Amino acid sequence: MTKTIEQKALKFIDENHLIEKGDKVLVALSGGADSVFLLAFLMKFKKRFRIEVAAFHLNHKLRGKTAAEDEKFCSEFCLKNKIEFVSVSRDIKTYAKKMKVSVEEAGREIRYRELHKAAEKIGFTKIATAHNASDSVETVLLNFIKGAGIKGLAGIPVKRNNIIRPILCLSSEDIRKYLRLNKIPFRVDESNLDSDYERNFLRNEIIPKLKQRLNSRIEERISNTSKIISEINSFIEKQVEQISREAVKFDGKELRINLKIISELDKSLLSIFLKSVVENNFDIELSSENIYALADLVSSQTGRTIHLKENIIASKERNEIVIGIKPSVVTQKAFYKIKVGQKLRVDGKDFSIIKINRKMFKFSQDKSVEFISGDHISSEFEIRKWKAGDKFQPIGMKGKKKISDFLSDEKVSSIEKREHLILTNDGKIVWVIGLRIDDGFKVTSETKKIYKLAVTVK
Q1: From CA 50, how far away is CA 27, in angstroms rounded?
Q2: Long-range pairs for 279-286 at CB < 8 Å and ≥24 separation?
Q3: Rounded mean pLDDT of 223-240?
Q4: Which of 17-31, 151-165, 202-216, 326-340 shows the lowest per-residue confidence on average (mean pLDDT)?
Q5: Strand partners, 422
Q6: Contact status, residue 255 vs residue 323, Cβ threshold 8 Å
Q7: Is the pLDDT of residue 331 over 50?
Q8: pTM for this model (two decimals)
Q9: What is the pLDDT of the chain when averaged over all its residues?
């Protein structure tokens, strides 16, 4: 039995190219059966792989005295087996409360962050976690119940960047049999018995009944299906990546998707593509309703805007879909007053108006800086959002133009357009901020008083 389990794991590692000669592998060690097995297994075969092995333990302070005993067990296990050991303590519950996330989510985030920090500190190249086939089955079932897409049904990935899962082929039952047969001690996490947690409910109550009534080899069957789905997902991701290179531009704030390219896509591929590019660039998880709405936006009228998740919105422009963070709205006042010589911060931007002498006057291509004639105007200005009906005469043009049309011509997205600010003087529009001044305020050879306008984003 021992040899069969070992051979199964060795074959899995070799087939998936998880370990290479010279690797330095840091094992995430909780003290539970799975991580103890993984560490013991890698130590036994480290000469075969020609690798170095170390262990990392996170004391999450969730179970008081028990958590301290877990840490002590891991430390003593490594000392006895001459394994380099790294341990850190973090208050998961406090972090979860602060970040407004679940304890499980907080624990996962901190665990991986600290694992990467520890690996870098001691110079290790790979991180091994003890996820097994039973964990993957639980993940697939949870994702299926919650309506996840194809990626969610692919289960836990065998590897991601420098993180590897060498025992993903083994069930929890296999691992515990091995430990019992080889008299290897491990800690029992009593919180795993609490079915109030979603995963524990599946593990303790649902999966045993499925095994009993439907299929005793459920881990193997679902793992095989997940592998097929994972291969399909890998193929689709390559298609999405290729489309993204041609159709997507992201400047860190706004995601622009070329409509001409994506409108030719099959509807199913379009939905998968939109879900992938949005989630990858904005670190959010879209619901099926979000994805359907986004796909419908492709064939909607120009100017339509939809809300996705949190503060992310998407709008249909003439030739593209624009997705970005909804700008913070100026809600404190309808307008802000600013005098020459003053600086003012509005909606995350710093504005200033100063008087300069003609020697300092120099035309620039920088649209965040403009120069206007201060002759015959008030020294007090106002900053406000533009409104319907606002018109001005863009410098160098004849006749007036609606601000709405001007912003569209300047390819300002619908997301940014509605919040765009203007500078006025005695009710007249002086500057569509960051874009163009009004021709009536331009500096000429006869101008005696020159004002420098500037806006910076911090």
Answers
A1: 16
A2: 281/250, 281/255, 281/323, 282/255, 282/312, 282/323, 282/325, 284/308, 284/309, 284/310, 284/312, 285/309
A3: 88
A4: 326-340
A5: 384, 432
A6: yes
A7: no
A8: 0.63
A9: 88
Backbone angle region of 328, left / alpha / beta, with phi > 0 → left and psi within -120 to 50 → alpha: beta
Sign of CA pseudo-dihedral 146, 152, 153, 155:
negative
Indicate whether 48 pLDDT > 90: yes
| Helix (H), strand (E) at residue 424 | strand 421-425
Cα four-point dihedral sign 101, 104, 109, 111? positive
Mean pLDDT, residues 375-400: 91
- Angle value at C-alpha 146, between 144 and 152, nearest 5 degrees: 50
Tokens (6 digits) for 399: 């006749």
Going from the C-alpha of 13 to that of each of 18, 19, 145, 158, the distances in angstroms are: 5, 7, 30, 9
Domains annotated for the chain, with CATH where assigned, are 2-226 (3.40.50.620), 251-325 (3.30.465.60), 335-457 (3.50.40.10)
DSSP secondary-structure letter at 438? B
